[in-house]
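Researcher: Next entry in the queue.
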Amino acid sequence: MITINLREGEEYIKLGQAMKKAGLVGSGVDAKIIIQDGLVKVNGEVDTRRGKKLYKGDTFEYDNNVVKVED
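Model: Structure for this entry, 71 residues:
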């Protein structure tokens, strides 16, 4: 499992940004295509919104990688 941290003072991170931060995509365009193609699960369910807000404790999955959002 990969863990990413929220920036200090922020309560969420958007899914596309989280994918980049976790090193799963090289750019926002890559994230957009992957997300819109339904290849990403957020908290166990497919989500096609690049701007989906992820909060502490949320997880997302892509390409056999599970990423958890922490403080």
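Model: Residues 15 and 52 are 5 Å apart (CA to CA).
Researcher: Noted, moving on.
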